[in-house]
Amino acid sequence: MSESEILETHLQELRRGTVVLACLRLLSVPGYGYGLLEELQTRGFATDANTLYPLLRRLEKQGYLTSEWNTDEARPRKFYRTSAAGARLASALTDDFRAIAAAIDALPKED
Questions:
Q1: Looking at the domain assignment, is residue 37 inside a domain?
Q2: Which of 12, 55, 88, 111 reaches 20 to 30 Å from 18, CA-CA?
Q3: CA 89 to chain centre
Q4: Which stretch of DSSP H or E encloses residue 78?
Q5: Based on the structure, what is the number of domains in the chain?
Q6: For residue 47, which phi and psi values (nearest 5 degrees)?
């Protein structure tokens, strides 16, 4: 495995939890999968549909998201929204993320 492939693997591991947090926070305003995917990418959370849609289904199954179908348009869309439990989880994850970021900032700097 090349150094760049190893780096990419570590970056994916580091980002995995941040995508969960970003979804929970962004979906405080209802949104559908493709729109969320674009919003995540615009905000610097690189992910793809094969990662996002299973994540949305898992968060819904766990009770952190709710969903409903919008059939008003020609093509029905499933809209997701962060539940009350999801908002509590997002708050806890945000607090922990900030504490981790502060701890990293306090580590010795690279030369």
A1: yes
A2: 111
A3: 12
A4: strand 77-82
A5: 1
A6: -150, 170
The residues, any chain, with a CB within 8 Å of residue 25's CB and separated by 6 or more, are 82, 90, 94
| Enclosing domain of residue 55 | 27-105
Provide the whole-model pTM: 0.88
Pure H helices in the chain? 3-26, 33-42, 49-61, 84-105
Q: Hey, what are 4's tokens?
A: 């760049």
Distance of CA 3 to the CA centre of its chain: 27
Interval 13-70: pLDDT, tens: 888 889 999 999 999 999 999 999 999 999 999 899 999 999 999 999 999 999 999 8
Distance CA 102, CA 30 (A): 31
Compute the distance between CA of residue 16 and CA of residue 72 in angstroms, rounded to an integer.
34
